[in-house]
Amino acid sequence: MSIRVLLADDHTIVRDGIKYLLEEEENIKIIGEASNGQEALQFIKNNETDLLIIDVRMPKMNGIEAVGILNQTPTNTKSIVLSMHDSEEYILKSIEAGANGYLLKDTDKKEFIKAINTVYEGGKYFSGDISNVIVSNLLKKSTQKETTEPKKVIEEDFGLTKKEKQILPLILSGKTNAEISEILQNSKRTIETHRFNMMKKMNVKNLIELSSKAAQLELN
């Protein structure tokens, strides 16, 4: 069964580019297009849609507003926000609205397809740069609370080490142990150990639970 995708962007050339990018993927089917958030929500209301890929900035209703409304309705449609902007404001507002993923428009085909499949299967997907912004925001909030709520900060941090905090955004971006090993110049075995310890500290059993708990922390 194909993943039924709705594209929402006010630029036809962008929608055409995404369709071209995905046209050879047998398990992904573009079932509709919209030029603003209102059109996207109306389409989802009338058509079974697995995934909404939506631009962050559009007329009438932007992507963040549409995702927020979507998550308040009884639907199984998941969402990925697509943007040219890696600003902290857009990223965090998208997560707060309930987006399951956030990708930049210069994302390559391999990562784009990986993001679609990850979100469809119930996970969250944020590209490496986006994950760094998310985790940096989490750590910044923890630092701000440090003087007034030191015990709470330690609890929210789950006692993660500096190395584990470095690995967390890479895991959230969907990278494998081997890829993380290459990026950080550590052995694969070392990364596996850090990953195991991190998941034990955060009391999660798989990547989906880890992503979900990390997202909750980012909002608090």
What does this entry show, briefly?
The chain is an alpha/beta fold and 220 residues long. Helix content is 56%, strand content 14%.
Topology:
Layout: E1 3-8, H1 12-22, E2 28-34, H2 37-46, E3 51-55, H3 63-70, E4 78-83, H4 88-97, E5 101-104, H5 109-120, E6 125-126, H6 128-145, H7 150-157, H8 162-172, H9 177-184, H10 188-201, H11 207-219
Parallel strand pairs: 1-2, 1-3, 3-4, 4-5, 5-6
Cα-based radius of gyration, to the nearest Å: 18 Å
Total number of distinct structural domains: 2
Number of helices: 11
How many beta strands in the DSSP annotation? Answer: 6
User: How does CATH name the architecture of the largest domain?
Assistant: 3-Layer(aba) Sandwich
Tell me what portion of residues adopts beta-strand conformation: 5-15%
CATH-defined superfamily of the largest domain: Response regulator
Mean pLDDT: 81
The CATH topology of the largest domain is Rossmann fold
> How far from one another are the termini?
37 Å
Q: What is the ordering of alpha helices and beta strands? A: EHEHEHEHEHEHHHHHH
**Largest sheet geometry:** 6 strands, parallel
Low-confidence stretches: 145-155
Determine and state the CATH class of the largest domain: Alpha Beta
Return the structural class. Answer: alpha/beta
Strand order of the largest sheet: 2-1-3-4-5-6
Helix content: 55-70%
